[in-house]
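Please review the protein record below. Let me know how this chain folds according to its tokens.
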Amino acid sequence: MEDSPQELPKTLPAEPKPEKVDVKKAQEVIFQPNEGPQTYFLSASEQEVLYGGAAGGGKSYAMLADPVRYLNNPHAKMLLVRKSTEELRELVSVSKMLYPRAIPGIKFLERDKTWVAPSGATLWMSYLDADDDVTRYQGQAYNWIGFDELTQWASPYAWNYMRSRLRTTRDSGLKLYQRATTNPGGAGHGWVKKAFIDPEMPGKAFWATDPETGDVLKWPKGHAREGEPLFQRRFIPATLFDNPYLADDGMYEANLLSLPEHQRKMLLEGNWDTAEGAAFSEFNRKVHVIEPFDIPSNWPRFRAADYGYSSYSGVLWFAVSPSDQLVVYRELYVSKVLAEDLADKVLELEYGEKMRYGVLDSSLWHKRGDTGPSIAERMILKGCRWRPADRSKGSRIAGKNEVHRRLQIDEYTDEPRMVIFDTCKHLISQLPALPLSKTNSEDVDTHSEDHLYDALRYGVMTRPRSGLQDYDTNMGRTGFQMADSKFGY
């Protein structure tokens, strides 16, 4: 009998045995941004973003966390700079605690101060002290560049130059970003404030502007995108109280409270409108700057101006509420404009409005050896009527005191006696930056940018106390009645 073939044992497909998962480690949160500004910063889509304000707002952690999202992209090449190598050490130290846990296998090259991820992505941590140091980065290309403590750079040269290093390949899937953190103060306070703080209310995106002129940066004539804005910026403010790890025990806050007033305002409150020796330290954007609203037609309106051709001409428009609060609702700030052309611009802007009067620097009525009409008279002949501002002895000091009074909170209304529309960006920028005179502590420094301040001073001094409400609301319907043909009012 023939033996039947032996039945072979059935084989089963191999099943790889998964490694034992450390659930606790897998669920560990390496970094979680604080709710509010830190989260806004990490999710911002604008090309250039400044994060900061007060001390203790979690700036450094946010700056180190931002590039982590790109470390898994092999095309990512990033750069984080501080002013000096000494200042860089703290960032390097914190990054060594954060990155190896967030990106397993990442390595730090001590000599080059560079993080290299398994994907091939790199983050170079370097210094940029003098302007000439930018030559270290010539020929380099980065998709992300960060500046920690931006106001330590006295000029915008390094920030602007490094923008030219932002580029990546078309198929990289990466966008181009420039990020910065800082506190108010420092050598670069002025230019950083003009670039990020003055153009728009905190937290709102805006098209990048030229810090000197305030003009939006646009694609040049002849380009396929001619006239379009180049890119957006955004300032995200943060204070100590946005960082619960420092705010809860109150010790750090106590240290900041002990500082001199101007330092306390900058480092505790994140106030960009204060400086040592500032003439109007009481100015506060949160109090004195408001969003525009439709001004009732029966509120009295007037304007005030300081004229200059070689420098700047500044014109401000005022309205007076029933509670006697002054509302500065419009500004005009131009240079190299003839008096007649300025008159046309003024009339165009206020078309349809009933101006009660205009006040102008009284020196513009002087002939100054000319045989023809004065500057003021040429403007009046165009239909832009003015009356001379008070420039008598002591008027500058009196005007400054009246500005101080208008910035105070009225004890009866609990509101400031003067507010400014947030569209008056030049006045909002210049007023808190005005320094006191070194020779007369009762006056501002006349060598500073004070054209709009002078217009403000002329305006508030026309009616330094209540009384603009004692008028007949029907008068405006009969048109402007000129009492004096020379002065035009």
Residues 85-102 form the longest helix (18 residues). Confidence is low (pLDDT under 50) at residues 464-483. The two ends are 136 Å apart (CA to CA). The longest strand covers residues 326-334.
